[in-house]
Specification:
Number of strands of chain A: 25
Shape of chain A: elongated
Distance between the termini of chain A: 98 Å
CATH superfamily of the largest domain in chain A: NAD(P)-binding Rossmann-like Domain
Strand content of chain A: 15-25%
Strand order of the largest sheet of chain A: 20-19-18-21-22-23-24-25
CATH architecture of the largest domain in chain A: 3-Layer(aba) Sandwich
Largest interface: A-B, 96 and 96 residues
Low-confidence stretches of chain A: 659-670
Helix content of chain A: 25-40%
CATH class of the largest domain in chain A: Alpha Beta
Radius of gyration of chain A: 38 Å
Oligomer: homodimer
Structural class of chain A: alpha/beta
Mean pLDDT of chain A: 90
Number of helices of chain A: 18
Largest sheet of chain A: 8 strands, mixed
CATH topology of the largest domain in chain A: Rossmann fold
Chain lengths: 670, 670
């Protein structure tokens, strides 16, 4: 008598499964290679009719996984049946290759066997195993499915009639009834009485209690559409019955359920029936199992899904950038709040050497909203020092720097939201002629609007006085301010303090850029020699200062107190990260000395007569708005009067008349 | 009787004059605005015949300056006559505008008058004055010429016949003779006897001693071709004669010499003669002078030469980049040897985050020869961190990194000589299969060739073992080695020591990257998890480390001892730049800690059993070449045996068996 042959499961992986795995790996699993439950699903086997020959061609006996496979509460879609699996993702290709597949397989088979014996539960009969290695740098996924199936010894045989269409074994009414019941209550394995009434296999003892053997049918949802080979689930169902009911299952009538729909004609049922028999095996012992899936070349080896070619390059870039950042959380800094950094909207005032490097480092941190402001055009000396410009941007008078930088950022990373604005920032000491007042007012309004719309503002201009107006507006609006300024081989990077009224009263307010000054910012641009007009700095200085400023912002954002965080004492033990956040210290001011390759930490308290951040200045700005600003621009005594610096200066002059002066001017822009 | 009218000088500036001024300003003058002598030249006035009307049209009465004007030993070209000038270049447009032009002018006129009275020398009669302001950022040159001319009061008059052609006053033979004499001995001002014999004006008393007044003629080379207005030089010549010989110069016959060539016909002479007379002025007093040149709009105001539109953009870029660097020497570091840096040929092993930033900073220093080596292709995560790549470089599998980076550098600065090589550097711990030996040999040969052809080599790879082979080759060849390696928020930047045999014997040899190790470099790449495969670092770290490495190279190149310089003691007073060069300290190793924003200075001596730079290794490499390398690649015990590390290790194991270990692994790549 012919031995029953089975169609093994074939894995069908929807591409979105890999995307889901990628996310899971990066955000949740990280370095874990623990085995996790997943689910797959299968449906009744389908076949298509070859239009030329009229032959039925069976489609694959598929077990499918998709994005829902990782969802613990996930239900199969209508008409699909759940298979439970275990999935294990290795960290390296070497571990994946070296994995002890026999042990893994036997472990899974053992679990399935135990579930049968211990709980008489059929829900493990289609269990599967999936091992993977995801090369997320190249979007290549190595994977291998195993569908453990217990081997019957001796094998099951089918009577000489073989597999017949279902209508030869059951009435049309019974089959229609089965169809209806499965639709209402999907059972992958079921018992059938002659009437067509079905019940879970688990109720074998009771449901068939008074039913003559000839009217007992064992049914299962058959993912195979092969005319003579029922699908893999039958193999384990037979092992189940044979193990639990050895006395009554030497002969079985089996229904391979293959009808998703009721056929148009009573003889059109695709399901099949057959009479199987088998000598009982040695009771109790777990039969051996087989089931590693072969690859498309027919070998017992893993498969590879290469998703790179089918992915949208822009999406690839998006994910790749995220990946590099999220990897930080895998091992080194699980507490790092990347979103806090990447969602910070940054305004860069100045798109020169500092501005370009700051923008690049912000992009590296995944910051998505970056706005640049500059009033200049790209000149021929820029590209070798300002890493968002190229030679072609300089010809014909040069492109506007801010817009050009933003356009380049999009070329670097299409996912960025970068914009550039050509805007002159009004400056104290540079009086506004009456004809230009309306323009100045509009420039101020635009600057206020831009600052309002951002969270952090970088002051990256090349003059002292251009930093005044944004300093005042940011202080009034409570924005985070990062300030960077370059000398020849020295730099200053600092964060401005937060207005006292918004800080806990006991905390010392940190100073701003102007807090050390006893004169108001004034015109330093007119009457400059060429070496004063150009940025004469050691070429490596700007990138160091710019990256330091961005990393200071990152550290501040990761500190529990944010930009309200107190500054660490400048002379504290360097190794003791006192007052540090997740990323480390949040100093107030850093002065870098390239000739020594050292940084000096400085803490400076806010100054009550500061022309940039004192209450007198902020209140005057808040109450008088542009009128106050215009006075500050036009009248070089205004800010000194407003803050009382003039009085201090007069007193000081008197007191110091007899002092010997040894004034040193280091020519730096800070 | 008609008053004599004069054609004033018109300045004619050859564009090359401005290029010469630019070079002079940047390289020599720098911040100096001292008045300097220059020269100009003029020729006989020329006219052209209008073909339609047959009228003669006089061309300008030009005084021309060109590149030779700054050359102190410069001689005028044949047929041209020298004018002496003083030139003053201001540092700022404001100083240029505010200059006291009256004082400057009077000073020059005073000098001219003193020269006349004191030395009777005619060589100052065409003196001129030029003040300039050169905006070298925009290639705009503001300038103003003054051609001081003494005003005769009362004015000179000409008899009723006016100016006649020369042939009406002198014979053809005389005129031909004058032409010949002037060609042989160019005299801008001369005396003529009736015979045509000429002499310098300085010999007035003797040459005309016995000549009847009617046969005395005063000649001058006339830059004017105007029919009735002789050129400006005559004005000062008349003032000269009138001042020195008042008694005999109330009436003068004047020859305006305008013939560069002997005419085809005896009546074709273009020179003119006229009979002038004037009442003597008050003796001794300097007459007033006029002579600031009007601008093309007819106003007494400076002119502007805008050279930007006519310059080749690539040349503009070239000069702009140089300018920014040379400005360092103006004020801050006159001793800086820029050429030493810019002429250093740099080889960058690794074109990733570090490689791209190093390349950019080298470009900022004006380095012209940069070669990159990498074996990878640009991937989607690169552009936001690696500043020589863009999104478009990643699609379709990615461009080769080294070549792509080199191409981008040319887009940034067309004057750069950048090349990229795709090359895998063989590594210890990564055995070479027999089939790949030929390829490995070729790779080693290529690497040796590249190192040989460069002066400084940067090790910027992302693994420990890939640095070994270049460390050995560079040590053997005595190249400068800069090494940069990144952790998550820490970096190492160091210069390798120079081989002991090439250093002064008493100096301590500084260590290389491997000198602290007691195990040979081995495979660290296989079996890596995703976060170990990707560079997981704070995004600002690479640019800081890269720029620090380049600035360390710059400091080393400016140190009198070059890369033989001893390292400063790590705990020396930071403010004391002991052992510093022009750019400051030349530390051996810098460890940067971004969580603290601090750098630590470390000095490490070379280790006699080092697998990278010890004599045992270098001699084995020098004697056995590729065979030795192949052993090191294939046999992971080879280097430890060669250096004696194995023996040390065995002894150490024994000695330390009872020690409690508390090993800390910080997962950093150094």
């Amino acid at each position: 008598m012919p031995i029953v042959k089975f169609a093994p499961f074939a894995s069908l992986v929807q591409p979105v499964f890999w995307h889901e795995l990628t996310t899971l790996k990066i955000d949740v699993l990280r370095l874990s290679d623990e085995a996790l439950p997943i689910t797959g699903s299968y449906s009744v086997g389908r076949s298509v009719t070859d239009k030329e020959t009229g032959n039925e061609i069976a489609l694959g006996c598929n077990l499918s996984v998709g994005p829902e496979s990782f969802d613990k509460s996930g239900q199969p879609s209508p008409g699909a049946f759940l298979a439970k699996g275990h999935f294990k993702n290795y960290n390296t290709i070497e571990e994946f290759r070296a994995a002890d597949k026999t042990a893994l397989f036997n472990q899974e088979a053992e679990k399935m066997w135990e579930a049968i014996i211990a709980t008489r539960d059929t829900s493990s009969l289609s269990n599967f195993l999936l091992i993977t290695y995801a090369d997320l740098k190249k979007y290549k996924y190595y994977y291998w499915f195993a569908f453990p199936a217990f081997v019957a010894k001796p094998a099951w045989e089918i009577d000489e009639l073989g597999w017949k269409t279902a209508s030869e074994g059951l009435t049309n009414d019974s089959l229609s009834s089965i169809h209806g019941q499965l639709r209402a209550n999907p059972l992958p394995f079921f018992l059938v009485r002659a009437s067509g009434e079905i019940a879970p296999v688990e109720s074998y003892s009771t449901f068939f209690a008074n039913v003559p053997p000839a009217e007992q049918t064992i049914g299962f949802v058959d993912p195979s559409a092969h005319p003579t080979n029922p699908g893999w689930p039958l193999r384990n169902l037979l092992a189940y019955l044979h193990a639990l009911y050895p006395a009554t299952t030497a002969q079985l009538r089996v229904l391979c359920w293959r009808d998703a729909e009721i056929p148009a004609t009573p003889t059109g049922w695709k399901s099949r029936v057959g009479a199987l028999h088998c000598k009982p095996a040695a009771a109790g012992a777990r039969p051996s199992a087989v089931g590693w899936e072969k690859n498309p070349q027919g070998k017992l080896a893993p498969r590879v899904a290469d998703l790179a070619p089918m992915m949208d390059p822009k999406r690839l870039a998006d994910q790749a950038v995220d990946l590099n950042l999220k990897l930080m959380r895998w091992r080194i800094l699980p507490a790092l709040d990347l979103e806090k950094i990447s969602s910070t909207k940054c305004l860069l005032l100045g798109a020169g050497t500092l501005g370009c490097y700051v923008a690049r480092t912000l992009m590296g941190w995944g910051v998505r909203d970056i706005t640049l402001v500059d009033s200049g055009r790209v000149s021929f000396s820029n590209p070798v020092r300002q890493p968002l410009f190229e030679f072609e941007d300089c010809v014909d008078g040069g492109k506007p720097k801010a817009e050009c930088a933003a356009a380049r950022m999009k070329k670097i990373f299409p996912g960025i939201n970068a914009t550039g604005h050509t805007l002159s920032i009004p400056m104290p000491g540079h009086p506004v002629p009456p004809a230009s007042v309306a323009q100045a007012k509009e420039d101020v309004r635009k600057l206020e609007e831009l600052i309002e719309a951002h969270d952090a503002v970088f002051l990256l201009m090349d003059s002292r006085e251009s930093r005044w107006l944004p300093t005042v507006i940011c202080a009034a609006k409570g924005k985070i301010v990062l300030n960077a300024a370059l000398g020849f081989d020295t730099f200053l990077v600092m964060r401005h303090g937060v207005r006292a009224s918004s800080v806990r009263p006991e905390a010392t307010q940190l100073g701003c850029y102007y807090c050390n000054d006893i004169v108001a910012p004034a015109d330093s641009l007119t009457d400059r020699t060429l070496d004063e007009m150009c940025t004469v700095t050691r070429p490596g200085l700007a990138s160091i200062a710019a990256s330091t400023a961005v990393e200071l912002l990152a550290a501040v954002l990761q500190h529990p107190d944010g930009h309200h965080a107190a500054a660490p004492a400048p002379n504290s033990d360097p190794a003791q990260l006192v007052g540090a956040g997740v990323l480390g210290l949040v100093p107030h001011q850093l002065r870098g000395f390239l000739a020594q390759f050292r940084n000096l930490h400085i803490v400076g308290a806010a100054y009550g007569r500061c022309t940039g951040c004192s209450e007198a200045v902020l209140r005057a700005y808040e109450t008088q708005g542009f009128d106050m600003i215009l006075q500050a621009l036009n009248d070089d005594k205004f800010l000194q009067k407003l803050t009382g610096l003039d009085q201090l200066y007069a007193e000081g002059e008197k007191a110091l008349e007899d002092v010997d002066w040894d004034v040193e001017d280091d020519g730096e822009d800070f």
